[in-house]
Specification:
Layout lengths: L3 H22 L7 E3 L1 H19 L2 E5 L7 E3 L1 H18 L6 E8 L4 E8 L6 H4 L18 H11 L3 E7 L3 E9 L10
Helix pairs in contact: 1-2, 1-5, 2-3, 3-5
Length: about 190
């Protein structure tokens, strides 16, 4: 019973690493469809519930501003969110760590998903290299693929990912995905 959190965390790391390698190594076309963002966020949150409860990290979600279905590749966005939350979970302090996920639709018909944390932040000199393949600040613990794969998936959606950070105050990643489509059928 005591080893389950360690086993779950280790299997999540292995799974994410294999997924990152596959996505990084070959071109892919996002399998976009209209879907419920709440389902994607819920599935992502469930990955981390045990891991975060053991370290007393709070995961706060507010996607109440996205009421309609959104057009995206649910598996790709799930992977992006998993990478971002995994990174945040490693950097926030135990017992006082907070990771927030928010979402809204902009006036320009863009889905904006924000993942922020109250971790130690990223020094300005590292921000420029953050999305470079194999760049890591985690030493032997990181592969340097998670953020570059996340950026690749977002760009495949025609979107962008922005980061802002302040040392000792936390980091914020903003995913922007256009919701315009050339499809005229299939909207639910």
């Amino acid at each position: 019973h005591k080893s389950w959190p360690v086993l779950k965390r280790t299997s999540l790391y292995v799974f994410e690493f294999v997924q990152d390698l596959l996505i990084f190594s070959k071109p892919r076309v996002p399998q976009k469809k209209y879907c419920n963002l709440e389902d994607i966020i819920k599935e992502t949150s469930e990955f981390f519930s045990d891991l975060f409860s053991n370290r007393e990290i709070k995961l706060k979600v507010d996607i109440s501003k996205v009421k309609e279905k959104v057009f995206l590749d649910p598996d790709g966005i799930l992977h992006c969110l998993t990478n971002l939350i995994l990174n945040a979970g490693e950097i926030v302090p135990e017992k006082t760590g907070v990771i927030k996920i928010t979402a809204k639709l902009s006036e320009n018909n863009e889905l904006i998903i924000t993942v922020s944390d109250n971790g130690k932040g990223i020094p300005p000199e590292q921000l420029n290299n953050l999305f470079e393949p194999f760049f890591t600040t985690k030493g032997y613990k990181g592969t340097g693929l998670g953020l570059s794969v996340t950026k690749k998936i977002i760009e495949e959606h025609g979107g962008e990912i922005l980061v802002s950070s302040k040392v000792d105050s936390g980091t914020q990643f903003k995913i922007i995905i256009p919701q315009t489509t050339v499809e005229t059928q299939g909207k639910e």
